[in-house]
Amino acid sequence: MGCETKARNLRHAGCAGVEMNSDPRIQNSEENNITVVALGSNLGNSRDIIFRAFERLQKISDKPLQKSSLWKSSPVDCPPGSPDFVNAVVLLTPSPSETPETLLKKLQALEKEFGRQTKKVLNEPRPLDLDMIAFGNEIRASEKLTLPHPRAHERRFVLQPLSEIAADLILPGQKKTVRELLDSLATDEVLTRLGDTVT
Ligand code: AMP
Fold first, then answer.
1. Which domains does the chain show, CATH number per domain?
2. Distance from Cα 130 to the centre of ligand 1, integer Å
3. Spatial contact of 171 and 131, defined as CB atoms under 8 Å apart
4. How many angstroms is it from 80 CA to the middle of ligand 1?
5. Strands (E), 52-95
6. Catalytic residue status for 131
7. Distance CA 128, CA 168 (A)
8. Can you give the pLDDT of all 199 residues of the chain as single tens digits?
9. Is residue 106 in contact with ligand 1, taking CB distance under 6 Å?
10. What is the pTM of this model?
11. Is 126 a catalytic residue?
């Protein structure tokens, strides 16, 4: 799956046409806080869980989700013996009244709905992990919420799927596009594309 940006002055966050005007950063108007959410699962039928999570995330997006492929990835910073993950990334358009905090609550409710328990061990296997990578250009550094997500720009399991739908996007706080970050990444993470998204 790929995505080519044809025009220099008209930037797109995704193949299906999230217009970024002349500014490749995430647009921060009240009406268009494009939000990047990373999905991961390494417990249960992860592929099925991710597809069902896409459907649930669609319900909290005002516009059709932009969805990456599904990718299998080796666990990073997880307890020894942790299963591989299935990962994906979506771009969603929150309603104008949504804030990062209200959206985080919805994402956490979804994680619970898919069976996530209160964690006993750091990064233990879970049916569904939802990370808010960015919410428009909002910045947060509270106990509950860090925006943009502090490690997203160095994670292949975020950048590789994100590059399918928003290669030219510049995440808040970064100078490089998603594609450039991916190209300059030096990690031993192994990612394998699992197949096309279900639309
Ligand atoms: P994790 O185990 O990786 O899902 O981390 C969950 C914890 O990270 C929760 O307590 C969240 O409040 C916190 N958190 C901080 N920033 C974010 C973010 N950008 N997206 C999701 N969770 C976040």
1. 9-194 (3.30.70.560)
2. 8
3. no
4. 21
5. 66-67, 70-73, 85-92
6. yes
7. 27
8. 333 332 222 123 433 333 444 455 565 444 568 999 999 999 999 999 999 999 999 999 999 999 999 999 998 888 888 999 999 999 999 999 999 999 999 999 999 999 988 877 888 889 999 999 999 999 999 999 999 999 999 999 999 999 999 999 999 999 999 999 999 998 888 899 997 554 4
9. no
10. 0.85
11. yes
